[in-house]
Write a structure and sequence with these properties.
The complex is a heterodimer of chains A (117) and B (112). Chain A is 0% helix and 47% strand. Chain A has no helices and eleven strands. In chain A, strand 5 (44-50) and strand 6 form a beta hairpin. Chain B contains no helices and twelve strands. Chain B has strands at 3-5, 10-14, 19-21, 24-26, 32-38, 44-50, 56-58, 64-68, 73-78, 87-96, 99-102, 106-111. Chain B is globular and about 40 Å long. The chains are: A mainly beta (117), B mainly beta (112). At the A-B interface, strand 5, strand 9 and strand 10 of A face strand 5, strand 6, strand 10 and strand 11 of B.
Chain lengths: 117, 112
């Protein structure tokens, strides 16, 4: 079974430039998450999707961050414009429906490491 | 405030020695509890989880964790550490549905 796939793995940009990250979840997983992981800290939830619907985006800085999951499968997280403080690892995760045996476990991708210069 | 606390930022143990990583949470009801491991440059991998039932749970790679309701703790243990266990370990709780809240992590160093 293929895991959660993220790209790019690494991205270096100058401040004020835009950047986008892509995530393809595990097949059949209807819940998709984007987490932000700063150096030396645990991941923090940015946004959670149930199918195409963003059900929890309270921690997403909406002035510069946006996300979409148009067909309820893969997702894109965008930052425009990027700031120095956005340098971090952006993790995507997915989980199966509870009715299908999901138990709250999240499956993570390897992350996209962003460096803003 | 609701939180997950991992009080040890770094821990160093000798190879072959036992290991215990601490985790405390502050939520009203017993949440789902997890331990994840993250090797450098990698994503998070689930070690074990607790939902209900037996409070001692076994996980992969020889790890186990014990849920203690009275102490709101879910400490991770391993009887004999291997050099390959060096990584960062995250305790996480899911108090509300599928939302997972992580602790700050504990970095494990293994000395030979």
């Amino acid at each position: 079974e293929a895991g959660v796939v993220q790209s790019p793995r690494y991205k270096i940009i100058e401040k004020k430039q835009p950047v986008a990250f892509w995530c393809n979840p595990i097949s059949g997983h209807n819940t998709l998450y984007w987490y932000l992981q700063n150096l030396g800290q645990g991941p923090e939830l940015l946004i959670r999707y149930e199918n195409e619907e963003a059900v929890d985006d309270s921690q997403l800085p909406k002035d510069r961050f946006s996300a979409e999951r148009l067909k309820g499968v893969d997702s894109t997280l965008k930052i425009q414009p990027a700031e120095l403080g956005d340098s971090a690892v952006y993790l995507c995760a997915s989980s199966p429906p509870r009715l299908a045996g999901g138990t709250g476990e999240l499956f993570f991708g390897e992350g996209s490491r962003l460096t803003v210069l | 405030a609701q939180s997950v606390t991992q009080p040890d930022i770094h821990i160093t143990v000798s190879e072959g020695a036992s290991l215990e990583l601490r985790c405390n949470y502050s939520y009203g009801a017993t949440p789902y509890l997890f331990w994840y491991v993250q090797s450098p440059g990698q994503g998070l991998q689930l070690l074990l989880k607790y939902f209900s039932g037996d409070t001692l749970v076994q996980g992969i790679k020889g790890f186990e964790a014990e849920f203690k309701r009275s102490q709101s703790s879910f400490n991770l243990r391993k009887p004999s550490v291997h050099w390959s266990d060096a990584a960062e370990y995250f305790c996480a709780v899911a108090p509300y549905g599928n939302k997972l809240v992580f602790g700050a992590g504990t970095i494990l160093r293994v000395k030979s």
